[in-house]
Design goal:
By secondary structure, this protein is α+β, with helices and mostly antiparallel strands. The chain has a domain of 71 residues: Winged helix-like DNA-binding domain superfamily/Winged helix DNA-binding domain (Arc Repressor Mutant, subunit A), CATH 1.10.10.10. Helix content is 33%, strand content 9%. It is built from 4 helices and 4 strands; from the N terminus they run ββαααββα. Strands 1-2 form a two-stranded antiparallel sheet. A hairpin with a 4-residue loop joins β1 and β2. α1 crosses α3. The protein is flat. The protein starts with 6 loop residues before the first strand and ends in a 30-residue tail after the last helix.
């Protein structure tokens, strides 16, 4: 992965890193796609981020990036940066997404709702 993260433990056989938070996951996805230099499919992204972020977190971050216009979703379902083109071997493939996109509204000013309000006595 392009973005360096904090190393918790490093050995000759294993390296343990701190996983990105939800706010950082979008930047890591963008860096990964930029490093590849081509659009990536859902399966490629899921494989790249296995063990780092769950499928729900990854899908949520991708949807947010697409809704904000930072990423572009191609007709074959792959994700890329604006200005990227599909490689010639995938241009002829007319595979469409299986599910429809549902527009979502994301706000940075959302205030967490308390589920318990203490009494003022």
């Amino acid at each position: 992965m392009a973005r360096s993260r904090r190393v918790v433990y490093e050995d000759s056989e294993i390296v343990v890193l701190v996983a990105p938070r939800d706010e950082e996951l979008g930047d890591v996805i963008i860096d990964t796609i930029r490093e590849k230099g081509r659009p990536m499919t859902w399966d490629e992204l899921r494989e790249e981020f296995s063990g780092i972020a769950g499928e729900d977190r990854l899908r949520r971050a991708l949807n947010k990036l697409v809704d904000m216009g930072i990423l572009v979703e191609f007709p074959d379902g792959s994700y890329g940066l604006p200005g990227m083109e599909l490689p010639p071997e995938r241009r002829g493939i007319r595979k469409r997404r299986r599910r429809r996109r549902i527009p979502r509204i994301y706000t940075d000013t959302a205030v967490p709702r308390p589920y318990y309000i203490p009494s003022r006595h």
